[in-house]
Specification:
By secondary structure, this protein is of the alpha+beta class. It has six helices and 32 strands. The protein folds into two domains: 53 residues; 384 residues, Methylamine Dehydrogenase, Chain H (7 Propeller).
Length: 531
C-alpha cells in the first residue's frame, strides 16, 4: 500500500513523506504490524534530520552573506550631506509679483496694451506698462487727441465714467484693490480692498460693479458704499459680466451656470433678480447690453451663434450666425449707439457686423397675421417648416453678417465698437498689440468695410495735442511715499460690505467728486493739483 505521512519541517512548514508498504494479506495490516510502524518512524526521523541540517546550512549562508555586505558598506562610507541654507525672509517690496499666473486672462499678458471704450463710445482708455492714457474719439477719422496721460504702476483694468473725470483702476501690483481717481486733479478719491483678485469693473451713472471669481459687489457711485453683494455665484474666472449704461434700466448680467449658457439678469437699482435666460447650451463667452438696457446680446464658447434677448422678459429677438466652418472664442460684443448694429470680434482675424432690422421683423409678423388661405406659397412654406426639425428651421431663420473686416493677424485680442463720428457711422477696433483701426460701414449688405485710419497707441509724439503740462510726475493717490489712511468697513444694506474694505482719501467724496460723476466738468486737460 502507499502512505503519505505528514511531518513538521525545521523551518515550520509541513512536509509530506512518501512511504510504500507491501501488505500480503488482510490480516497482515499495516496498523497491526509493528515492524512496518518502526520502519516508517525510522524513515521519518531520517527525513527530519536531513531537513534540519539543510535548514541550518542555508541559515549560516545567509548570515555570512549579510556580514560581507555590511563590511563592504563600512569600507566605503557615504559622502556627507550638505545642509541647504535657510532662505531669508523677503520684504513685500522684494517679493516677485506673479500677476500673470494669478489671473490667467488673455487681456493682461506681459508687454501687451489694455484698451477699453467708455459707455457711450466717446473716449478710449489705454493702459501700458508705463501708465495709462485717455483719448477723445471726436476726430478719430484724422487725428487721435490725447486727453490725459500719467505714469503709474502697470494696470490691467481701467474704466472711465462717460466723459467725466472719474476713472476706476486696478494695478497688477495690487490686484485686489480698486482705486477711484479724479484724473483731472490727479487725486485718489477712495480705494476698496477685496478678498480675491478683481476680474472686472463696470460703471454707469448709478452703480459701480466689482466682479470677483465667485461674487459681485454693487456700489452706489454717489458715495461709493456697498449696497448689495451677490455671493456664491458660479465660478467665473474670466470676470464675465455686463452692466447697462442706462439709468432707467440699470441691469446687471452675469453667468448663471458653469456648464450651460444661462444668463442671470439682476436689477441693480431695486436690488432683486429680474429674470434668467437659457441662452445657449454651452457656457457663456461674451455679454453686452444695448444702450437702452432693454436688450442683451450673448455668445457661447462655441462661438457660432449670437443671440439677442429682451432683458425684461427673456424673449428671444434675434439669432445671428457668425459662421459654420469653425468654432471660435468670441472676445467682444458691442451694440452701436443707435442700437441698429451689433459687432463681434474673436480670436480670428475676422470682425463681423450684424444689422438688427427690427422693422423687417415687425413687417413679417404683421404679414404673417394677415395671410389668407389663398396665399398658397405662404401656406406651403409653413407646412414644410412644420415637418422640419427645430435645428434646421433655426438655421434658416438665422441672420447673416451685414459686413465684415479682415485684419492682418489672428490670435490678437480686440475690443470693437460702432460709434457716430461727425454724423457718420464708424467701426472702431482697438487691438491688444497697440493699434486703433477706424473703418467705414458700407451701405450695401455683404460688402467689406473700408479702412480710413490706423492709429498707433504706443507712440507719444505724433499727436497734435500738447500734454506736457499734465506730466508733472505726481502719482495717482497723492505724493509718493504717503500711505493711504486706515482701512475701515464699508457697510451697506442687502448683505454688502462683508469682504470689501474701504480706505477713503477723505471722510466722504466732496463736491469735485459729485461734479465728476455728473460730468459737469469738462473732460479736457487742466493744470495738475495735489490730492
Amino acid at each position: 500500500m502507499e502512505l503519505f505521512l505528514e511531518c513538521l519541517s525545521p523551518s515550520g512548514s509541513t512536509a509530506l513523506v512518501y512511504v510504500w508498504v507491501y501488505v500480503g494479506s488482510k490480516n497482515n495490516c499495516a496498523t497491526r504490524n509493528p515492524n512496518i510502524i518502526k520502519f516508517c518512524v525510522a524513515q521519518l526521523n531520517k527525513r527530519r534530520a536531513a531537513l534540519k541540517s539543510s535548514f541550518q546550512v542555508s541559515r549560516e549562508y545567509r548570515k555570512q552573506k549579510q556580514s560581507r555586505s555590511v563590511s563592504v558598506a563600512k569600507r566605503t562610507p557615504a559622502p556627507p550631506q550638505r545642509r541647504r541654507p535657510r532662505p531669508q525672509a523677503q520684504t513685500p517690496a522684494q517679493r516677485p509679483v506673479t500677476m500673470m499666473s494669478l489671473l490667467g486672462r488673455p487681456d493682461v499678458d506681459a508687454g501687451e496694451v489694455f484698451t477699453n471704450f467708455n459707455q457711450n463710445i466717446t473716449s478710449l482708455a489705454v493702459a501700458t506698462s508705463g501708465g495709462y492714457s485717455l483719448y477723445s474719439l471726436g476726430s478719430v477719422d484724422s487725428t487721435l487727441d490725447k486727453i490725459y496721460h500719467t505714469k503709474s504702476d502697470e494696470l490691467f483694468l481701467i474704466e472711465r465714467l462717460f466723459e467725466s473725470s472719474l476713472v476706476a483702476i486696478v494695478s497688477q501690483r495690487a490686484p485686489r484693490k480698486l482705486k477711484v481717481c479724479h484724473f483731472k486733479k490727479q487725486s485718489e478719491i477712495c480705494n476698496y480692498s477685496y478678498a480675491n483678485t478683481i476680474l472686472a469693473v463696470k460703471l454707469n451713472r448709478e452703480r459701480l460693479i466689482v466682479c470677483l471669481e465667485e461674487s459681485l459687489y454693487i456700489h452706489n457711485i454717489q458715495d461709493m458704499k456697498v449696497v448689495h453683494t451677490i455671493r456664491d455665484t458660479p465660478c467665473n474666472p474670466q470676470g464675465l459680466c455686463a452692466l447697462s449704461s442706462s439709468s432707467d434700466h440699470c441691469y446687471l448680467a452675469y453667468p448663471g451656470s458653469v456648464t450651460a449658457g444661462e444668463v442671470q439678469i439682476f436689477d441693480a437699482i431695486h436690488l432683486h433678480a429680474k429674470t434668467m435666460i437659457p441662452a445657449h447650451d454651452t457656457p457663456l463667452a461674451a455679454l453686452a447690453f444695448s444702450p437702452s438696457g432693454t436688450e442683451i446680446a450673448t455668445a457661447s464658447e462655441r462661438g457660432t451663434v449670437i443671440r439677442v434677448f429682451s432683458s425684461q422678459d427673456g424673449s428671444r429677438l434675434f439669432e445671428l450666425r457668425r459662421g459654420l466652418k469653425r468654432c471660435v472664442s468670441i472676445v467682444s460684443l458691442s451694440f452701436s449707439t443707435c442700437a441698429e448694429y451689433l459687432v463681434s470680434s474673436s480670436n480670428t482675424e475676422t470682425v463681423h457686423i450684424f444689422r438688427l432690422d427690427r422693422t423687417a421683423t415687425e413687417t413679417a409678423d404683421n404679414h404673417a397675421g394677415k395671410q389668407t388661405s389663398d396665399d398658397w406659397m405662404g401656406f406651403l412654406g409653413r407646412t414644410v417648416t412644420s415637418y422640419l426639425p427645430t435645428q434646421v428651421t433655426d438655421v434658416f431663420s438665422q441672420g447673416r453678417a451685414f459686413a465684415s473686416v479682415t485684419l492682418p493677424e489672428a490670435g490678437v485680442r480686440r475690443m470693437c465698437a460702432i460709434a457716430t463720428i461727425q454724423k457718420q457711422l464708424r467701426l472702431l477696433i482697438a487691438s491688444q498689440d497697440g493699434y486703433l483701426y477706424v473703418y467705414s460701414i458700407p451701405a450695401v449688405e455683404g460688402a467689406e468695410c473700408q479702412l480710413i485710419k490706423r492709429h498707433d497707441l504706443r507712440l507719444e509724439d505724433h499727436y497734435a495735442m500738447d500734454i506736457k503740462g499734465l506730466n508733472s510726475g505726481v502719482s495717482i493717490g497723492g505724493a509718493a511715499g504717503v500711505p493711504p489712511s486706515g482701512a475701515s468697513g464699508a457697510g451697506g444694506s442687502g448683505g454688502g460690505g462683508g469682504d470689501a474694505k474701504a480706505a477713503p482719501a477723505a471722510d466722504k467724496p466732496g463736491g469735485s467728486y459729485a461734479s465728476a460723476v455728473k460730468g459737469d466738468e469738462p473732460a479736457g486737460p487742466s493744470s495738475s493739483s495735489s490730492a
